[in-house]
TrEMBL record:
The gene is PAN2. GO terms for biological process: mRNA processing; nuclear-transcribed mRNA poly(A) tail shortening; positive regulation of cytoplasmic mRNA processing body assembly. It catalyses: Exonucleolytic cleavage of poly(A) to 5'-AMP. This is PAN2-PAN3 deadenylation complex catalytic subunit PAN2. It comes from Podarcis muralis (Wall lizard). The lineage of its organism: Eukaryota, Metazoa, Chordata, Craniata, Vertebrata. Keywords: Cytoplasm, Exonuclease, Hydrolase, Metal-binding, mRNA processing, Nuclease, Nucleus, Repeat, WD repeat. InterPro entries: PAN2, PAN2-PAN3_catalytic_subunit, PAN2_N, PAN2_UCH_dom, Papain-like_cys_pep_sf, Ribonucl_H, RNaseH-like_sf, RNaseH_sf.
Length: 1151
């Protein structure tokens, strides 16, 4: 700013100038300001929480202190991050982060000179002082320091491009500096000295002079094009916006300078002055705030702020006052987003004004790097059980005297430590050159680290033979690792070939399909498998089809169809989880996890999967409820759970519940509702012997005391609430609710009670214990025979940790009273007892079908696995993502609470399948291939890139279809570089399909596309891969895209119809395409040109080379492969190029 002609006293300051430092000041004058009577520097002066900011009107949000007593000389909003920079007259710079003005950094720029201008760049901040230009990082490190002549007196700088800077001042020249070389490249002579303000537009450089003139200069030569003589005294400030230039300054009056209340307005099109704008304050600063209108913010030095239009009249009602407590405004700036203004006063205070409570300084700010928290006076926790803990970590006081623990020299003798055996992993990877071996360091121990006690010398571990395969497992003692190997969390080990060399068959010898775990929120894989093995649910979702874009029932049906076609190969539920992440209810329930939470084990997976279980049943019920009209292609709207509409989910899981509330005044209220599952409720008193049937009945017919509103008493009263059921479900779903050590201890004690009862004998038989008439026969200990359910136990260990039965029997009497019993078919007495009562009252037997357990593992964060009874209803299987193993029946009911915690139980009524129609009818019809409207609003029909199929062109079995797909990246891959230079992929990049193209493989229109769909996406795209895919930003946005945009579900249905018809897909690298699209295609329907001429252990041959060698179609790498020129717009796809290779494949065996 130019202050020449002002009162010289304004330029002088003393530390006691600010009234905030005077402890005797009247407190009524200091509203909303916290004062420090000791005069020490204040960290900040926050606005009280009760301050209300009216939307659209600027008002004060926060006030902080930069440096007490030192006037602010310049303030600047960072253009790249959410930061505010403040420089003062003492040469000190301070930065504040965010609207809360949290102090980020503070450092000294110059020892004595004031900071006259600040300019933020991408990698740092420029600071201009009197004869010095410094470029410093945002943390205060000097990047470069450019010194000028001592005679220079610089006041302003202007960044003309990212690498060029203009610097001007009270001299006769303006310097141009190259920021890359930090050298002066040009020196422009200024006819009128004193360039204190510089601005730039798309036509001119604007230079404000101390003489009151504004010169317009050429952008290339810096020559004067025009000049405005604004004021007779001096220029204070000016700003440019559009075609308007507005100035404020001082006029000469009575041999002095007086602030001129007329703002001079100039039209840059005609290069002349227009009607000046009279304001009601003494203007010192002004800035355009172009939002909906070109408003001007005019600031006086006394703290008055007025808003007005440059071509209108100033209204006194638009004047606001900055609460500076009598201090003078020294600096002013407006953020790039126009949502915030900042004022700096003469006592070092910074006042932030905003137009809303939640604002940003920039439209698109990058993340700010914060310093790591300083850990002071903290010592690490020392674990005495760790053999590798160095004793030197224990601090010992320094002393010159002998210690009590010092051994005399006579009792000490050196004992050399035998070197431990070399890690077999090192020996395996070692390469020998002569007699010297070289091996990469596995990095599983610190430098010079060795255990104080070698494990090989311990006799107690001689018989232990279980050694983990991975180096990570070798870091821990295997004998204390409780989790069995098949229950541990499985991960996919990626190589440079990706998944191609990973042997999934090693983990799955069955024909069931596993699910891959690397997709976000794949913790529900085991529950998806449970729903798949419930045949009524599987048939229901595969028969379901609607128009809703993100329908979990549709996506679950597509996923189950893939599991049907797979013959032991793993599948991935990426499309289902993609739709799951878009459901607002799932996010509200906390079911959508971040990658870090799932990987580090910060969430309780047991509680999470129980909430997911409740959510998915409710969601499937809502989406499949019977409504008027045909089921296929129903509208988006669906009735809520509990309405008149019914569904197969409701018939399977729903149970009508009668809730009765009894107030102590005697008023009874009855409410009828429905529930899809039950949650176990455990007794509060001391743990005693309970059967599972007793706890289950107690949980279904729940009785509890609570405070509830009584209409009769008209106040909250202690109320007894009881719950009774009116009917029994076909599938009984139980959430175990073992979320604390108390519930875990209850399960553990009940399993011990059950084991003791089995071991009670009288002669050669176990004593019949009377509890719900459960009778068990077991021979002597050395000849264990048949137990519950007729299973032959091989050891006593299999009887431990078992509490839940394999079957339960439930009876609902005519009075709607529920009875629940543990059921054992081997007990003839009980069997005859039930047979005699069956004709009298209805009874149901439920068999255990699945158990979901939470595996506690501190190393990996835990996981979820499922035990599911197979389709034969005899063999049980363990489902651990893509690991599937047949297991003994007893493992499904054994719960070692130290690492294997029950989460969900599924009991299924016997003869369930006879009640439901298990026929699957494909709901996808040929109409999905017909022409459809695009989601893009700006698509032009004249630029169509495909011709839809006509009715006479519908594909038949064996028809050829060329297929190509393009993808975008949603998440970059996570990889690490090993010590030997090799790259190890920890987590692959997450791809999403962006474009799918299908071309005709025969007929008169051979080579002409009939599908060319761009897939709309709402997820954030990290990389569009434009170099390979041709997809550009905006192509997948329905608001601005000009492409034929559809939903992923719509295009997926087209591909599913082609697969179901039996067409043969021809393409290059189709395996990856189908994987990202998340669709399963039988191998006999795929002709992949990447395998036609592939030799074992050799790299794949590109399609470009094949087209050049066999078809003579050569194109440079910069030229894409196009379709025939008959189309108006030629998409960048190689689909038509692979069609000629289909005939070649008939003579070759394509895998």
């Amino acid at each position: 700013m130019n202050f020449e002609g002002l009162d010289p006293a304004l330029a002088e300051y003393v530390p006691a100038l600010h009234p905030a430092l005077d402890p005797h000041l009247n407190a009524s004058l200091l509203q909303n300001v916290e004062l420090d009577p000791e005069g020490v520097p204040l960290e900040g002066i926050p606005v009280p929480d009760s301050v209300h900011i009216m939307e659209g009107m600027y008002s004060e949000l926060h006030t902080v202190v930069s440096e007490v007593g030192v006037p602010v000389s310049f303030s600047h909003f960072d253009l790249h991050e959410e930061m505010l920079w403040v420089g003062n007259h003492g040469g000190h710079a301070t930065s504040f982060f965010g609207p809360a003005l949290e102090r980020y950094s503070s450092f000294q720029v110059h020892s004595s000179d004031d900071i006259r201008q600040i300019q933020s760049l991408e990698n740092g901040v420029l600071f201009l002082t009197k004869n010095n230009l410094k470029y410093m990082s945002r943390g205060g490190l000097i990047i470069f320091d450019y010194l000028m002549d001592e005679s220079e007196d610089m006041h302003s700088l202007l960044l003309t491009d990212p690498s060029t800077l203009l610097v001007g001042g009270l001299t006769s020249h303006v310097i141009e500096i190259d920021l890359n070389t930090v050298q002066e490249t040009q020196k422009y002579t200024v006819e009128v000295p004193g360039v204190t303000i510089m601005r730039q537009s798309n036509r001119f450089f604007f230079c404000g002079h101390t003489s009151g003139k504004v010169s317009l200069r050429d952008l290339r030569t810096f020559a004067v094009e025009h000049e405005f003589d604004a004021y007779s005294g001096s220029l204070s400030d000016f700003d440019v916006h559009g075609n308007l230039l507005v100035t404020c300054g001082f006029s000469s009056r009575m041999n002095g300078l007086a602030c001129d209340r007329f703002l001079k307005v100039y039209d840059l099109r005609m290069l002349r002055a227009i009607t000046p704008l009279q304001v009601h304050i003494d203007p010192l600063f002004l800035k355009f705030i172009p939002t909906y209108t070109s408003r001007l913010a005019i600031i006086s030095q006394t703290g008055q702020c007025q808003f007005c239009e440059p071509t209108g009249l100033a209204n006194p009602a638009d004047i606001f006052h900055v609460n500076t407590v009598g201090q003078l405004i020294m600096s002013f700036d407006v953020s790039a987003s126009k949502q915030a203004m900042v004022f700096g006063d003469s006592e070092g205070c910074v006042h932030l004004w905003t137009d809303s409570p939640e604002i940003t300084f920039n439209a698109y700010s990058r993340e700010t790097d914060f310093a790591l928290p300083c850990i002071v006076d903290t010592l690490p926790h020392l674990d005495w059980n760790q053999d590798l803990m160095p004793l030197s970590l224990i601090p010992v006081p320094l002393t010159t005297e002998s210690l009590l623990s010092d051994w005399p020299v006579s009792n000490s003798a050196p004992a050399p430590r035998r070197a431990p055996a070399v890690d077999p992993e090192i020996l395996r990877a070692m390469k020998k050159v002569g007699f010297i071996g070289y091996a990469p360091n596995p990095r599983n121990k610190l430098r010079n680290q060795i255990p104080y006690r070698l494990k090989e010398l311990d006799n107690e571990f001689d018989n232990f033979s279980q050694v983990p395969e991975s180096p990570i497992g070798r870091e821990e003692e295997p004998h204390i690792y409780m989790v069995a190997k098949k229950y541990r969390k499985v991960t996919i080990k990626y190589s440079k070939l990706g998944l191609e060399d990973f042997d999934f068959k090693h983990y799955n010898k069955t024909l069931f399909a596993g699910l891959e775990p690397h997709i976000p929120n794949s913790y529900c894989n085991c529950m998806i498998q449970v729903l798949y093995f419930l045949e009524p649910v599987r048939c229901l979702v595969q028969n379901h089809l609607c128009q809703k874009e993100f329908c979990l029932s549709c996506e679950l049906g597509f996923l189950f169809h893939m599991l049907d076609l797979s013959r032991g190969d793993p599948c991935q539920g990426s499309n289902f989880l993609r739709a799951f992440r878009t459901i607002p209810e799932a996010a509200a329930l906390g079911l959508i996890l971040a990658d870090s939470d799932e990987a580090t084990g910060k969430v309780n997976l047991g509680r999470l999967v129980q909430s997911w279980n409740r959510f998915i049943l409710t969601q499937l019920h809502q989406e499949t409820q019977e409504q008027e009209g045909p089921q296929a292609y129903r509208g988006i709207g669906s009735s809520n759970f509990g309405s008149s509409g019914d569904s197969v989910i409701g018939q399977l899981f729903s149970c009508e519940v009668e809730n009765c509330s009894m107030c102590r005044c005697g008023k009874e209220t009855v409410r009828v509702s429905s529930t899809l599952l039950f949650t176990l409720s455990y007794p509060e008193n001391k743990i005693k012997d309970y059967e599972f049937a007793q706890i289950l009945k107690r949980s279904i017919c729940l009785e509890q005391n609570t405070q509830a509103w009584c209409e009769n008493c008209e106040k909250y009263q202690p109320t007894v609430q009881t719950r009774n059921i009116r009917c029994l479900p076909d599938v009984l779903v139980i959430n175990c609710e073992v979320n604390s050590s108390k519930e875990a201890e209850f399960w553990k004690m009940q399993a011990e009670y059950a084991f003791k009862k089995l071991m009670m004998k009288k002669g050669d038989c176990i004593v019949l214990y009377k509890s719900s008439c459960l009778c068990v026969f077991l021979p002597s200990r050395n000849e264990l025979g048949m137990a519950e359910g007729g299973h032959s136990y091989t050891s006593i260990e299999e009887l431990k940790n078992v509490w839940i039965p394999y079957s339960i029997k439930m009876k609902l009497s005519k009075n709607k009273e529920l009875e629940v019993y543990n059921w054992d078919e081997s007990t003839e007495v009980c069997h005859h007892f039930w047979q005699e009562r069956r004709p009298i009252e209805s009874t149901y037997v439920y068999d255990l079908m699945a158990t979901i357990v939470h595996i506690l593992d501190s190393r990996t964060g835990g996981s979820l696995v499922g035990h599911i009874k197979g389709v034969t209803h005899q063999q049980w299987y363990l489902f651990n993502d893509f690991l599937i193993e047949p297991v003994d029946k007893c493992e499904a009911v054994q719960f070692d609470m130290s690492w294997k915690v029950p989460a969900i139980l599924y009991y299924v009524r016997r003869n369930l399948h006879s009640k439901y129609n298990l026929t699957i009818k494909n709901p996808i019809e040929a109409s999905v291939l017909l022409a459809e409207a695009s989601l893009a609003r700006k698509q032009r029909k004249c630029h169509a890139t495909f011709i839809p199929l006509m009715l006479n062109e519908m594909p038949q079995v064996g028809d050829l279809v060329g297929l190509d797909a393009e993808f975008v990246t949603l998440n970059e891959e996570e990889a690490e570089l090993r010590s030997d230079g090799t790259k190890s992929t920890i987590k692959p990049s997450q791809m999403s399909v962006a474009r799918i193209t299908c071309v005709r493989g025969q007929g008169p229109n051979e080579g002409v596309p009939f599908i060319d769909d761009y897939i709309s996406t709402q997820e954030q795209v990290v990389d569009y891969l434009t170099q390979y895919s041709g997809i550009k930003p905006g192509d997948l946005d329905a608001k601005i895209s000009s492409k034929h945009l559809t939903t992923l579900k719509s295009t997926y249905l087209k591909l599913r119809f082609l697969i179901d018809v039996g067409v043969k897909f021809v393409g290059h690298g189709l395996q990856k395409d189908f994987r990202v699209i998340n669709i399963m295609v039988p191998r006999d329907q795929v002709i992949d040109t990447v395998y036609l001429f592939h030799m074992p252990r050799k790299r794949m041959i590109s399609l470009r080379f094949l087209a050049w060698y066999f078809l003579g179609q050569y194109r440079p790498y910069s030229v894409p492969i196009y379709l025939p020129a008959s189309l108006n717009s030629l998409p960048r796809i190689p689909s038509s190029t692979v069609i000629p290779f289909a005939s070649v494949s008939r003579g070759l065996k394509c895998p």
